[in-house]
Structures are given as C-alpha cells and as structure tokens.
Amino acid sequence: MLEIVEGSGYKYTLDSCFGISRRINKWERLLFIVCLFDEKYKTIFCDTRQLGNAIRQWDYEFNRSATQPINDQLNLLADKFRNYKVIQDNQSIVFTLKTYGLDI
Questions:
Q1: Residues of 4-29 as b/e, b for ≥16 C-beta within 10 angstroms?
Q2: With DSSP H G I counted as helix, E B as strand and the rest as coil, what are the percentages for the chain, rounded to 5?
Q3: Closest by alpha carbon to 51, among 33, 76, 63?
C-alpha cells in the first residue's frame, strides 16, 4: 500500500488506503501506519493528528484478532519505533510490543 500512496500523490488515496488497511493483517496494518511517520510521507500526505488517530484505532481494534506477528514484522516494528518519538508516546502499543520481547 505504501507504493500506492507514494505513486498517487493524492491525500484521498491515502485516506482510502487507511480504510483498506483495516482489512489486512493487524501487524501489516501497524507497519503501514508506522511507515507513514517517515518524513517523506508525513510532509506530503499526513499530519501527526491523522497518524495518531490511525495508531489509536489500531490499538483499539487490537484484540479483535488473535493473529501473532512474525519475527520479520517484530524486527521492522522495533526499528521504526526506535526512530519515531511520536510513536513511542503510545504506551499501550509500547507495552504490547514489549510483551513480544521487543526492547524499545
């Protein structure tokens, strides 16, 4: 979905991708949202409030699925969380990731 967002250049495409992301694996969804905190996306498409809302929505819907993350997903999430302070402020997600053994 990041390729779609990047290739489009339109905010309504991002909004559609947020909606579609609610239908994919919850860990892939979290990675998608977290990747959008990168400056190359944030300055073009998103504001911190919109991304914060997407993170809170993920957190709210977390227990609706028992899907477990694979190691690659956990490693990518750990890298992203270390790089973006604004994401680290969500203590619920930090706690969740720590329960999977991540040191963030």
A1: ebeeeeeeebbeebbeebeeeebbeb
A2: 70, 0, 30
A3: 33
Share of the chain above pLDDT 70, in %: 94
CA torsion through residues 90, 76, 41, 25, sign: negative
Inter-residue contact 71 to 21 (CB < 8 Å): no
Domain range summary for the chain, segments of one domain joined by +: 2-99
Instruction: Give the integer Cα–Cα distance in Å for 12 and 79.
Output: 28
Count of positions (residues) in the chain: 104
Per-residue pLDDT tens over the stretch 36-74: 888 777 666 667 778 888 888 998 898 888 899 999 999
pTM confidence score: 0.87
User: For residues 72 and 15, what is the distance between their CA atoms, to the nearest angstrom?
Assistant: 26
Q: Which residues contact 47 (CB under 8 A, 6 or more apart)?
A: none
